[in-house]
């Protein structure tokens, strides 16, 4: 009897090991030189990724880190205005491409990025309570605190994913502070039960990445996990440049900042859940709006954009055929051109 139980237990254990092995064997395809690039980056350390003036804004007791990047005073003695960037769930403001920030600044705008609460150098919500989570409205007030700390009365708001939801809330509740709105890869109601989930299993793939690369806590593991996230969210093969850029970003976060908050996603999803739908309020938005969404977004179904965009008065849309949740670098010139036109529209309404 004991022998049979042992054989049964061993068989179940073997099956479990094989199942886990098969599950973890999947995942992203990295460029062949990835290990070499990652090792070199770890040995040399990351370059400086913060180029502007940094500080903290006090948002009802929460400290919110920001970076303000000025435009060229030689080319633009008087800036055209301020662009405020709001990042998505679980990621700090370091995920915004430094090259892209410089492109925005080169067009005459002051650019401000900030770490949402729960990420980066902002407060991580150590006293966060699942029964009383903060909301997207609270996070919108964080954005206002950042504007106030920089003496900016009105700004062009660009939000991606959850950041787009926060940006919508800003434009609804604090419209006098918003010159224009760019709402990217986002939704008017993320938990909308009438819309289907995107094709594929995003949650399962994320779990695979976490189990495969982060349990050791190593720098190389975290780099590969974030590479996997980009590979999952961007409908384009990873390149050597991606490996270098992500390695620098992850190493910068882990060595020069506070690292990654493992509770950030839990807090941010709770904020989205408690905040509910904005669909009935989008008609209150009066500023020029540009809605941008990829048709192959596996994180936020394209159907969300098609549903909420018509609810915003005179909203313009930019549907990116074949693009994912994160846009390819080759698509950015088209996006930039559309954004700058929206910004100009916002300035005309002053």
Structural notes for this entry:
With 350 residues, the protein is an alpha/beta fold. The protein has one domain: Alpha/Beta hydrolase fold, catalytic domain (Rossmann fold), CATH 3.40.50.1820. It contains eleven helices and eight strands. The protein has an eight-stranded mixed β-sheet with strand order 1-2-4-3-5-6-7-8, with helices on both faces. A hairpin with a 2-residue loop joins β1 and β2 (62-69). α2 (34-44) runs parallel beside α8 (240-256), α4 (136-149) crosses α5 and α7 (219-233) crosses α8. The longest helix has 24 residues, at 2-25. The protein is globular and about 50 Å long. It starts with a helix and ends with a helix. Residues 8-25 have low confidence and may be disordered.
Strands ordered across the widest β-sheet: 1-2-4-3-5-6-7-8
- Helix and strand run: HHEEEHEHEHEHHHHEHEH
- Weakly predicted, low-confidence segments: 8-25
Largest sheet properties: 8 strands, mixed
Residues in β-strands, percent: 5-15%
Helix share bin: 40-55%
By secondary-structure content and strand pairing, the structural class works out as: alpha/beta
In short:
With 350 residues, the protein is an alpha/beta fold. It has a single domain, classed as Alpha/Beta hydrolase fold, catalytic domain (Rossmann fold, 3-Layer(aba) Sandwich), CATH 3.40.50. The chain is 43% helix and 15% strand.
């Amino acid at each position: 009897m004991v022998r049979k139980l042992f054989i049964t237990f061993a068989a179940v254990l073997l099956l479990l090991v094989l199942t886990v092995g098969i599950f973890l064997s999947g995942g992203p395809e990295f460029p062949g030189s990835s290990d070499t690039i990652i090792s070199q980056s770890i040995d040399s350390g990351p370059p400086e990724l913060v180029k502007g003036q940094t500080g903290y804004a006090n948002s009802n007791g929460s400290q919110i880190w920001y970076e303000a990047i000025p435009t060229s005073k030689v080319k633009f003695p008087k800036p055209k205005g301020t662009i405020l960037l709001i990042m998505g769930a679980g990621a700090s403001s370091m995920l915004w491409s430094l090259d892209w920030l410089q492109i925005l600044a080169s067009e005459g705008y002051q650019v401000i990025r900030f770490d949402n609460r729960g990420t980066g150098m902002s407060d991580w919500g150590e006293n966060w309570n699942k029964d009383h989570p903060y909301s997207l409205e609270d996070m919108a007030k964080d954005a206002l605190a950042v504007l106030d700390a920089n003496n900016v009365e009105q700004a062009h708001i660009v939000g991606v994913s959850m950041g787009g939801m926060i940006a919508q809330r800003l434009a609804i509740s604090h419209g006098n502070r918003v010159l224009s709105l760019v709402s990217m890869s986002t939704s008017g109601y993320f938990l909308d039960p009438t819309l289907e989930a995107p094709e594929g299993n995003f949650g399962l793939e994320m779990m695979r990445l976490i189990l495969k690369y982060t349990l050791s806590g190593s720098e190389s593991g975290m780099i590969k996990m974030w590479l996997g996230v980009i590979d999952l969210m961007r409908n384009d093969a990873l390149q050597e440049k991606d490996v270098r850029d992500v390695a620098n970003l992850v190493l910068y976060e882990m060595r020069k900042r506070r690292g990654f908050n493992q509770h950030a996603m839990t807090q941010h999803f709770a904020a989205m859940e408690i905040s509910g739908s904005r669909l009935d309020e989008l008609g209150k938005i009066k500023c020029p709006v540009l809605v941008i969404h990829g048709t192959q977004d596996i994180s936020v179904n394209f159907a969300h954009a098609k549903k909420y965009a018509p609810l915003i008065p005179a909203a313009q849309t930019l549907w990116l055929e074949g693009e994912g949740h994160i846009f390819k670098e080759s698509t950015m010139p088209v996006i930039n051109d559309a954004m700058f036109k929206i910004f100009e529209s916002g300035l005309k309404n002053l």
